## 1
Amino acid sequence: MSESAFWNEDWMKTQQKYWETWTDMSRQAMGMKQPVKSPLESAMEHWWQGLSPGANDMTRDFMNKMMEQTQSYFRMAEGYYKNAGHSNDWMDTANRTVADLQKLFSGNMEGIFGNTESAGDDALHKMMAFWEMPMDNWQRMISSLSLMPGDLLRNMPHTGDLDRFLSAPGLGYTREEERQYKQLTQRVVEYQRCLGEYMGFFSNLGMLSANRLKEKIDALIDEGNQVDSARGLYDLWVGSSEEVYGEQVMTPEYAKIHGRLVNSLMALKHKLGQLVDEALGGMNMPTRRELRTLQDRLQESRRESKAMHAEIELLKEQMIELRSLATNKQQTAPTKRSSTPKKKAVAKKKAAAKKN
Amino acid sequence: MQPFNIRPDQLAEEMYDYSRKLGKGVENLLNAEKIDTGVTPKVEVYREDKLRLYRYESPADVVQSSVPTLIVYALVNRPYMTDIQENRSTVRNLLAAGQDVYLIDWGYPDEADRAMTMDDYINGYLNRCVDVIRKRHKLDKINILGICQGGAFSLCYTSLHPDKVKNLITMVTPVDFQTPDNMLSAWVQQMDVDLLIDTLGNVPGELLNWTFLSLKPFSLTGQKYLSMVDVLEDEDKLKNFLRMEKWIFDSPDQAGETFRQFVKDFYQKNGFLEGGVTIGDRPVDLRNVTCPVLNIYAEQDHLVPPDSSRALRNLTGSKDYTELSFPGGHIGIYVSGKAQKQVPPAIGKWLDERS
């Protein structure tokens, strides 16, 4: 290991802070003192924030993912540790951890998403953020398809009398334009409704996963096995979550929710595209619709051109074959003629020999 | 017995150990050089638009088969998975098994390729590549090895051009697209594919990544990174991981019209089983596949369940049909150490017996 700056200074400070933190937590486990607020994560975050500007894109991306998981891992250890502070009975600790998870998942996921500041104080509460992963992946994907951040649409108001207002017909000279924008807003509302439905589905899964974790713990007891590390606990939690997820996303209900989410987003983007096209047309600029018409026509021309090219190549090959056949004929014809007298000569010789 | 045995000092030690590994590993990560993929020497023998047809160079001491084998990879992700690193290369091991290997790289379609159809890919690009190889080797027929979606394309191709295929190998290829354990299929049944394509044009690689990662979100987007801490200190293992990471997220966009037909005809209508697939102006009928077929599937495949591949058994018109199961996953079948030892040699042997 080279003596790089981050290793010597920042990293050692971070390590020191870890030990202090764990000391604090050990004290708290023995009922002596409250630990500082989320110290492991903030120390780790502080360290990575200092280091990340020097990393290339791939490394930074990779490490960001790693840091996210590190936080989940630490949160799980931290949550477990806090429960251990209430009891010396490990079974009781496990039960408490699972019960906390169940309690959290029985709450409203939307409320937690919308109130992350207050949720951030509690390690177990944060641990639930693990279940945001599918949602988080969706938001990232949406962001990559749009100029808008993925969570922008989630936070727009979408309840109340908006539906009724949007259903009212437009009036006057700008009627058509008004209709277009109302349709756009209706699609935003519909997408938000589908997104809420999707999030609600995952909220239920969190609860089921907590129950599955409890079942797995019970199974450990029956089998006489033990978990002897935070990593083992984390893996157990991942296994429980993945199992439940795998079962639930194969249900017809989820297929509908997933379909509605994707379809509503596409309907929204489609409408946006139409409006953008209209604006571009108004400015006398090429539109997406026109471009696609050109692409279709161009592809058709390319198909024809390639087919013709293939035919020409085939014809060329046939021409070459024909020429070669003709050349062969020309070359072989005199040879045959010259062979005839020889044959005749041989026949004469044979006849002469017989006579003799 | 208690289910947990985690003492506070043990927990602290574990956290410290994790942090130490992470800190040390980050330096390796920051120092990681450019990640190379596609390691076996190859020569470009044909190009058309964004497509490239490569021929791999055989080791000097290996006698090559007289019938070349064309690898047809999926449009999803990149074909260098088959040659990702020196000790994990299906291509290299096929060469070692005496096969003369060609591979199609479809390239990265962009918006100008949106209108490309399955007909353009199969009766166009693929057929022309086959013709190029046939001409180079003065052969009527060559071998085709189709992988995943490329396997489905190869089945369509062989059905439409049986006179050009001597032997067909399908690897982790979906045939029955609606087996009960096919998660992808369950999800797309309710999707309005026309609206998706009409809206997006091409299907972005990010959307495909999201879909694939959503199959196992906690393992694939979470646990995997935590496990990496254990190998961060090992430069070689780290590079292996980064290579895979690069491949996973190296997702070309999909030409819209091809995606539209593929999802509708196969995922939604289960076209190989139910019929009704037309490419160009000709129907696809697997009974036209009369050449010898080797169907290889992975027993723990979460993308193409084994039953999906095994469905081929009763659908072709071949009298020489063989199955090979591999105890691994969809990716492991190309890159795992066990696969390297088992799969390419088995393919080589099967081909040699039929050449």
## 2
Amino acid sequence: MTAPLLEVVGLEKSYGAIRAVDGVSFSVMPGEIFGVIGPNGSGKTTMFNSVLGQIRPSAGTIALEGRDITHLSPLQLSRRGVGRTFQALQVFGQMTVRDNLIVAAQEHRGTLLRRLFAAADNGLGARADELLAQFRLRDVAHRRAGELSYGQQKLVDIAMAFMSDPVLVLLDEPCAGVHPGLVDGIRRLLQELNQARRRSFVVIEHNMEFVQQLCHRILVMVEGRVLAIGTPAEIRANRQVLDAYLGA
Amino acid sequence: MTRRSHWLIGGGAAIVLLGAPGLLRSYGVYLLSYWLVFVVATMGLNLTVGYAGQVSLGHAAFLGVGAYSVAILMKAGHSFWLGLPVAAALCFVLGLGLGFPALRVQSIYLAFATLGFNVAMWLVMRNEEWLTGGTSGITDVGRPGVLGWSLTGGRAYYYFELAVAAALGALLWRLLRSPWGRAFTALRDNPIRAESLGIHVQAYTLLAFAIGAAYAGVAGALFAGLVQFVEPTPFSLGASFLMYLMVVVGGAGSVFGPALGAAVGVLLPEWLRFAQGWYLVAFGVAVVLLMRWLPGGLVSIPDRVRARRAGAAPTTRGRT
């Protein structure tokens, strides 16, 4: 049996008396697209940020490829091959789109001193051009990222997470604020990346259609706890989920 | 600005700077040399402030350490050519030390930390008479020679400073086009995102301070040779504020910004001398007006003109 890529066991995060994340356990298999859904305030982003080292969990363990990563910093996680996007746009607005992609992976190549004497693109130009083409951003490659439309910036943001060829990417609401016409495009891109490179993703998203079409399994969180985990069909048929979240 | 316009501006500036001493009297050449000292110092501050996004109000302390390093070593019988690298290296190490508060505090708190550093260093310069000569300072600091060519004359020293400024400008240009430059910009624009991409925020923050400080150390060494007298007054807090102003007025985070800003800080007060007792007031008003109309600094003028022609709002380059 294949070992999980990411394994979260009994994760908790408390703020005083409030338990934002309460004993969450799940695992993500290699090549799997794993969705996380739940109403606002259910603890999805807190759980996400705990896994990503942005906040320190109160209890529980997190393992990547069998190795404990519970208290690693975002920097260390990035170097272990964990990529991420944030809920709000996080591109570097003053840099060109191509430079945004290059900066997303440059620290994964060579030592600090070698990077001082390296070529401007640190040998990442070809990889950046490949992703620019895949994300249909070639025409705006040399424009400042801050000058692009919201949807294009969102694509840059997602492409950045894949530049360093991470083993696991956590995407926090990749469709938030995006024009409905682009949502299908983002889904297809993620499916292509998943199939071509057998990359695993964890995706938080409110767009139910997007999650159901994209994800292999879905975790439903309510009030900091896991309500259900299953395939999209199982989640759709789950009475508890229907009552607590999908009821309408 | 495009690469072509960078080369055009650079080439035009080189012609003017090489030819200017032939058209100026000795005081004019001295003023240009004084301006070059601040061009070098603010190049470093621009890296710290404009590219890496850190606040530093302690830059004059590094200028002072550089100047005193050369003056003390030359007084002890050593060459300027030993003093120059010692000044840069000592300031680099001190810059690493000053960078540490930036790992813990940001914005106004970091400003106060660096401000405290400047005050402490200034007090050392003023009170440690056995080392610095106290308020009497160190006199008769010599000027160096190079390959048998004396740099004691005003014009020769100006060209020496110009060569050093050009070399350091080229080095900075290369640095900013390396992955380091991109990491500095990422750190300035969004440190949380930068860290999530594997950029070592602590290492780059310290490097931004240290390299910026080393530039100020070299500027201080040039200052010592230019003025030939080193005492604490030019390295007080006021000088740090003035250098910060130069970076912002010129255009933080732009290659040519410090040169323009240093011209405003050094040359503009001289041009306003016609206002006699009011010249510093006129200088203050000019700076306020510049900041009101050009928040992106003098380098943003072409962008503003283009934006006005296109009927769109101008974009502001860089950040302070």
